[in-house]
Amino acid sequence: MITLDRLVNVLGSYGVRLRWSAVPRSTELRNVVIHESFSDRPVLGDVLLAIGADSLAEAVRWAVSAHAVVVLMRDTKEPISFDGEAGVGAVMLVDEALSWSELAAVVYGLVLEGRETESGRGPTDLFALADSLADAIGSAVVIHDELLQVLAYSRHQLPADPARVETILERQVPEALRASLQARGVLAHLANSDDPLFVPADAEHGLTGRMAVAVRSGREIMGSVWVGCTEPLDGAARNALAESAHTVALHLLRSRASADLERQVESELVIRSLEGTPDAATLVSRLGLPNSRLRVIAVQAFIGQDRDAALLLAFERATAGFGWSRPGRSALVGSTVYTLLPGGPAAARRWVTGLQASLPDQVTLLAGISGAAAVADLAAARHEADECLALHELSPETAPPVYDESWDDILLQRLRTASRTGRAPDRGPVADLRRHDAAHGTEYVATLKAWLEGQGDPAEAGERLGVHENTVRYRMRKMAEITNLTLDDAKKRLAMMIQLAAGDAD
Asked: PANTHER family in the record, alphabetically (predicted)?
């Protein structure tokens, strides 16, 4: 189910606003109804679409009859003030430019198909389905997605072997058990067959036995249903399991359609937040994120030379969440997925690790993480994330760079970029020494850099270069004969260090 707060936040981008409310924003909404003027049967529901209501009084009267918590009606420009008992919990006004058919599709999708658990996204009707199947079979049921992450499980807990307990706690099949199922050919069977399969006990991984069946839409595998049992199911129980696969597939298709709608709304809000609009705080609130310091994570994904398929998959995983936990909000912009995430560098890196783990092994993921930023500074944070992403592309084998820790590398990268786009000095000590090294095979530029980094200590410079300190002294004297070093001038030393750093591709 969803809450009134969620309904208000999502519908706000469609031209619907909350005009009056006497109930908490946390009020749960379970169903949607439309007033039927020509029917004697009463319609009952939490959300009433007052299509055709000529006045506020009429819309409220319909809502009272339907026992509705919230009524949606056209804005009639009437003043709204309830001094006493209103009979309805909340009134939302619909912009005249928005058609009822479009609004109805959104509201039905949100309330009936886009249901959520208390801790995040997840189709709660699957839990009812799992309970129904468990009652029919007489054993515990778990419903997984195609990655073996838990979507729902039954209240019926017997048999609750260690594998079931760990799977539910981790919200996914443990990695060791997954590897065992892969080796035993279970996952291959689910990928290629619609027939239920008995999985014998595996004491090493705490499994007492399972019956499993694939959930499929056409040829696409969408998930699987698992029933705890010590021997193969037969008769009515086996038929119930086989039939459940079709029912679960319908639920997942409806849930996917609703998720696509929410992805679009979420993506638009994230993009606007990253553009630095004055109402960024309102947008972040509508996204359900805290109005505190956030980080921007920039992600790119590819399989070999193909970026499109991998990027779309990464966006789907980022917006679907891992299990039921979804701490961030994401948008796909060009060739990059941007995610707003609260927390520190460790939390951001865990998020990237979780995203990588949810993708196929052949997908390469690159990421950059901004510093913590106030809501008003998210545009600047996006630029930091892009720069960190560029750093990760240069060293993909390292951990994703975080701006807090990598600001110095980013500064040097900016200098290198500036030196490539502008005209680098072709005169002066560094330019003279570069030409000499190229012509005579000397190592004067490296020696100058080591001497500057060692703050003029020949011994330390020698250690950096792997030569004796006297060799450093000799080279410094020869360099002074080639060009005017003026090493006693602090400003010139700083300029030489900057020029060396800007020209250093390492």
From this structure: CARBOHYDRATE DIACID REGULATOR, CONSERVED PROTEIN
Kindly report the number of other CB atoms within 10 A of residue 229's CB atom: 20
In this prediction, residue 159 has a pLDDT band, given cuts at 50, 70 and 90, of low
More confidently predicted of 379 and 82? 379
154: nearest Cα among 136, 135, 125, 130: 130
Banded model confidence at residue 497, pLDDT cuts 50, 70, 90: confident
Nearest CA among 433, 469, 426 for reference residue 449:
433
Contact 106, 114 (CB under 8 A): no
Give the model's pLDDT for residue 421.
Answer: 61
Query: Is 324 a residue whose pLDDT tops 50?
Result: no
CA–CA separation, 463 and 467 (whole Å): 6
* Residue of 296, 299, 298 lying closest to 371 (CA atoms): 296
Query: What's phi and psi for 298, nearest 5 deg?
Result: -105, 130
Residue 322 has pLDDT above 50, yes or no: no
The closest of 170, 285, 183 to 153, measured between CA atoms, is 170
Q: Determine the Cα angle at 432 with ends 429 and 435, to 5°.
A: 150
Q: Which helix (DSSP H) or strand (DSSP E) does residue 369 occupy?
A: strand 364-369
Pick the CATH number of 424-502 from 3.60.21, 1.20.1250, 1.10.1760, 1.10.10: 1.10.10
Decide: pTM greater than 0.90. no
Architecture of the CATH domain 2-114? 3-Layer(bba) Sandwich (3.50)
3-state SS string for 8-36: HHHHHHHCEEEEEECCCCCCEECCEEECC
Percent of the chain with pLDDT over 70: 89
Amino acid 85: pLDDT? 61
Choosing among 2.40.320.10, 3.10.310.10, 3.40.190.10, 3.30.450.40, the CATH entry for 126-255 is 3.30.450.40
Of the two residues 486 and 417, the one the predictor is more confident about is 486
Handedness of CA 67, 69, 71, 77 (dihedral sign): positive
Condensed to tens digits (0 to 9), the pLDDT of residues 397-451 reads 888 999 988 887 887 777 777 666 655 566 778 888 989 999 999 999 999 999 9
Rounded to whole angstroms, how far apart are CA atoms 485 and 478? 11
- With both helix axes pointing from N to C terminus, report the angle between 235-274 and 125-137 in degrees, rounded to the nearest 10: 170
Name the CA dihedral angle for 315, 316, 320, 325, rounded to a multiple of 10 degrees. -40
The full set of domain ranges for the chain reads 2-114, 126-255, 287-417, 424-502
Whether the pLDDT of residue 385 is over 90: the answer is yes
Q: Where are the alpha helices (DSSP H) in 184-293?
A: 186-192, 235-274, 280-286
What is the Cα–Cα distance from 236 to 240, expressed in whole angstroms? 6
